[in-house]
Design a protein that fits this description.
By secondary structure, the protein is an alpha/beta fold. The chain folds into three domains: 144 residues, Rossmann fold, CATH 3.40.50.11220; 93 residues, Udp-n-acetylmuramoylalanyl-d-glutamate--2,6- Diaminopimelate Ligase, Chain: A, domain 1 (3-Layer(aba) Sandwich); 122 residues, Nucleotidyltransferase, domain 5. The chain is built from 14 helices and 18 strands. It has an eight-stranded mixed β-sheet with strand order 1-4-3-2-5-6-7-8, with helices on both faces. It is globular.
């Protein structure tokens, strides 16, 4: 049992992504039923409602003020489901609030299980979606007040997140979000990301207009913009970001061959230098592809771990199925493949042509491919 003592953060046992907290008789019953239907939830409730089966069911009991439980739950759970009055929850979590990019999603269920309210971190913390899921499980009504969700328009801070898009800077998220929900003229320029970005079952509102290029959008003087591109913008294009957010889609594939023992520092430097020469953003790299012989190369593994990229490898037989612009007998002699960086990049990207066919630099050989989301749409 967890003993809650003033001024001390209790030790808890986190097993899942979500925690459900209850402090009333009805709340405990609702919580016990809920965790049976919603896997991935740890249940916490007051020890005075113990029924004797808590240890067997992995339920954690506590005694003392529930307020002192939240500091332990806050940093470790993805979301908190709380069956306590909304006002009390707001007072208890207020001292813990840090940043919407870090705080967990918080939803509140009333004691009768009739409403599920998204309270905190609705978008980035996932509370809005969690509220919908919880409500569906218990047969309640989800209460969501985020304007973009209510109006079924673009959630600027989540735009493209399901595809892995990253925004370059959070500076303009708030003013651009205001432009979207206030139905001002908003330009969407999607140069290289996935095309099915609209996430609602209703038509795109007329205040949001798509443009093929930044130049076309600038000529139309939009009040805000969402720009999706792997490119580094030119000086002439930068005005689009005066009230705009720049997103980086995961479309760049780095094909890489290297000598055994090549350092992570050299590999990273070559990648950065090459992308800079191409005027591409490193945030748009989707994967690093190589030959099977290099699947355990420490330098490649270290770079991939640093940036969160998967290291994808292919057998020589797979690489030799790819038509190469520059096959190499020397490479074949040592690896059994006529090329490494070039065919690996082509295979992963699913393309016949590369942005950069092959560049030798020090102990490395690098090729660059782009995932063809826009091209596929045009065919």
């Amino acid at each position: 049992m967890i003993e809650l003592v003033e001024g001390q953060i209790p030790r808890i046992e986190q097993k899942h992504d979500y925690a459900l907290i209850a402090i009333t008789k009805h709340g405990v019953e609702l919580g016990r039923q809920f965790v049976q239907k919603f896997p991935g939830t740890d249940l916490y409730y007051m020890s005075k409602f113990a029924r004797g089966d808590e240890e067997a069911r992995g339920i954690q009991l506590f005694s003392g003020s529930v307020r002192m439980l939240f500091p332990a739950l806050w940093p470790v759970y993805k979301g908190l489901i709380v069956i306590i009055s909304l006002g009390a929850v707001v007072r208890m979590i207020a001292p813990l609030l840090e940043d919407k990019k870090k705080d967990p999603g918080v939803v509140v269920i009333d004691d009768r299980g009739e409403h599920v309210i998204s309270v905190l971190s609705g978008h980035l913390g996932g509370a809005n979606e969690l509220a919908r899921e919880v409500a569906a499980v218990i047969g309640a009504r989800p209460v969501i007040t985020t304007a973009s969700d209510v109006q079924k328009t673009i959630p600027v801070d989540l735009f493209g997140r399901r595809f892995g898009w990253e925004w370059e800077s959070a500076e303009k998220l708030t003013p651009v979000s205001a432009s979207v929900v206030n139905e001002e003229r908003v330009a969407v320029i999607n140069e290289s990301g996935e095309r099915d970005w609209w996430m609602h079952d209703t038509p795109i509102p007329p205040s949001i207009r798509e443009y093929a290029t930044i130049g076309e959008a600038l000529a139309d003087w939009p009040q805000a913009a969402l720009v999706v591109t792997h490119r580094l913008l030119t000086e002439e294009e930068m005005p689009i970001l005066e009230n705009g957010v720049l997103y980086r889609p995961k479309v760049i594939v780095v094909g890489m061959g290297c000598n055994r023992g090549t350092s992570a520092e050299e590999i990273e430097a070559v990648i950065r230098e090459t992308l800079q020469e191409l005027r591409f953003s490193i945030k748009s790299v989707k994967a690093l592809a190589t030959i099977e012989l290099k699947k355990d190369e420490p330098g490649l593994l270290a770079v991939c771990e640093k940036f969160g990229w998967p290291l994808v490898w292919y057998t020589p037989e797979e690489l030799n199925q790819v038509t190469l612009d520059e096959p190499s007998e020397t490479v074949y002699k040592f690896t059994g493949a006529y090329g490494v960086s070039e065919p690996a990049a082509k295979l992963y990207a699913g393309v016949d042509k590369l942005v950069l066919t092959k560049k030798k630099s020090g102990n490395t050989t690098i090729s660059i491919a782009l995932m063809p989301y826009r091209e596929e749409e045009r065919r």
